[in-house]
Amino acid sequence: MDIRDELIEHVPRLRRYARALINNRELADDLVQDTLERALARTELFRAGTDLRAWLFTIMHNLFVNQVRKSAARGVHVSVDDDSVPETDYAVPATQTGTLEVRDLDFALQRLPVEQREVVLLVGLEEMSYADVALALDVPIGTVMSRLSRGRERLRALMAGTVPRANLKVVR
């Protein structure tokens, strides 16, 4: 018997499995169709004497997993003509705020003293331990902790728009 003829015998099982995976008849049928299409396009990969059903279910499983991943990245499909869905559900979140925040953070980081900026970036961005930062900068670990503390405090103030006053002694 030809592999194409054997495929037809497995359609009911594939449908049953697809409907168990996807609680939507049309999408389940699409999955079965995609599975059969993939199997027919790759019949040369099937090894004679092995279990055709297992091979088909493997193809279906892989297709299903790929569809789930794609739909998660894409979001939920909603028909534009569906009056039961409020228009606010079609809204896309704005991205310009994030861009502005990154710009402001970069500006604030540039306003930090170099010693504080180094420590803040090495600990915060590079996720280095205090000991590693101390070793990299050749300073005591206590210096790393105080620079980090002051740098974070100044960074918070810069981001909030309130620059802390400098603790400078006035020489007369």
Overview of this protein structure:
The chain is mostly helical and 172 residues long. It has two domains: 73 residues, Rna Polymerase Sigma Factor, Chain: A; 65 residues, Winged helix-like DNA-binding domain superfamily/Winged helix DNA-binding domain (Arc Repressor Mutant, subunit A), CATH 1.10.10. 67% of the residues lie in helices and 0% in strands. It has seven helices and no strands. Helix 1 crosses helix 3 and helix 2 packs across helix 3. The relative contact order is 0.06. The mean pLDDT is 84. Pfam families: PhyR_sigma2 (PF22029), Sigma70_r4_2 (PF08281). Belongs to the sigma-70 factor family. ECF subfamily. GO terms for molecular function: DNA binding; sigma factor activity. Keywords: Sigma factor, Transcription, Transcription regulation. This is RNA polymerase sigma-70 factor (ECF subfamily).
The proportion of residues forming helix, as a percent range, comes to 55-70%
CA radius of gyration is 30 Å
Strand and helix order = HHHHHHH
- Determine the CATH topology of the largest domain: Rna Polymerase Sigma Factor, Chain: A
> CATH-wise, what's the superfamily of the largest domain?
RNA polymerase sigma factor, region 2, helix turn helix motif
Mean pLDDT: 84
| Proportion of residues in β-strands | under 5%
Number of helices: 7
| Cα-to-Cα separation, first versus last residue | 104 Å
Q: What is the class of the largest domain in the CATH system?
A: Mainly Alpha
Identify low-pLDDT runs: none
Report the major sheet: none
Shape: elongated
| Domains (count) | 2
Second rung of CATH, namely the architecture of the largest domain:
Orthogonal Bundle
Strand tally: 0
SS content category: mainly alpha
